[in-house]
Amino acid sequence: MQADDTSLLPRLGGQTILIVGDLMLDHFVIGRVDRISPEAPVPVVQFDHEEYRLGGAANVAHNVAALGGRVEMVGIAGEDPEAGRLRADLARLSIGTSGIVIDSSRCTTRKLRVVTTRNQQVARIDYESDREVAGELEAEVIQRIFALAESASAILVSDYLKGVVSRGVAAAAAGAARRRKIPLLVDPKVPHIDYYAGATVITPNHHEAEAVTHMRIRTSEEAGLAARRFRERAECESVLITRGEHGMWLLGPETETELPAEAREVSDVTGAGDTVIATMTLALAAGAPLADAARLANRAAGIVVGKFGPAVVTVEELQRSTSV
User: Fold this and answer.
1) Of the candidates 277, 76, 81, which has an alpha carbon nearest to the alpha carbon of residue 187?
2) pLDDT at residue 264 above 70?
3) Which element (helix H / strand E) includes 261?
4) CA distances from residue 197 to 129, 138, 184, 209, 234 in whole angstroms, order as listed
5) CA atoms of 253 and 239, how far apart (whole Å)
6) Count of CB atoms within 10 A of residue 136's CB?
7) CA-CA distance, 167 to 272, in Å (whole number)?
8) Catalytic-residue membership of 274
9) What is the pLDDT of residues 147-202, one digit of tens each?
10) Which domains does the chain have, with CATH numbers?
């Protein structure tokens, strides 16, 4: 454990994070596979059970809540049963839902995965409408950002290209953070790279960093060069490139460092980026230096990839991980 992590971890619970982004439900249909269908060369899945988990920006919120932070959500849901389930699941975690705007013209984003009891994915079906918000809908989202930012310690934009993060919405998040003098962190998508100017930290994975910078990232030196190019292109203060088993590369205004991967056993990398940005946002909101926030996020990522599906890390798990 870093020397100052002991004092940092208890402070995470005193922060309120405003999360703006694409809300999703992850729906798992789980069963056994014993044979191939005679009708087509596909496995026959004998249903065992199903479960729902929060996905997308909602999974980011779950991660913040699991670390003791308070959360307010701004996003969009449809007028359908999935929206009710999403709201109920968020409320159960004491996550604020007053910023969720209902759009009856679209469905609530749901990813249905058919999975075997051995955690092997057989198929995925996406229920979604990814058109970008505009007009009155965009104005309503922006209004809720400014209203809820008044009580926030940091703002986090979780962009999954499902329509919530328009240029105007991203600019509103940046403006609210600037006015309140609080950090703005962005989990980006490549087509929106021009939306994120003014962000405190952007957290691309190495594929996204390669796409934005038009360069290969295979070595530490290439990661450092890509981070500098990415920062210039995105017009942000700092960049944290997540590189899977190769760890992370952090470039800040006054620091640049490589963080080796801390995973001991990898089960599923789904949602690992959500855990990284949730942890880092909470740490920065609590006053941690950039490098310390990144180290804590790296440790959290090493824990969450050992779990199946979108998952979370707790303060207790972070504390235990330091003694291993």
Assistant:
1) 277
2) no
3) none
4) 26, 19, 10, 16, 6
5) 10
6) 9
7) 26
8) yes
9) 999 999 999 999 999 999 999 999 999 999 999 999 999 999 999 999 999 999 99
10) 5-321 (3.40.1190.20)
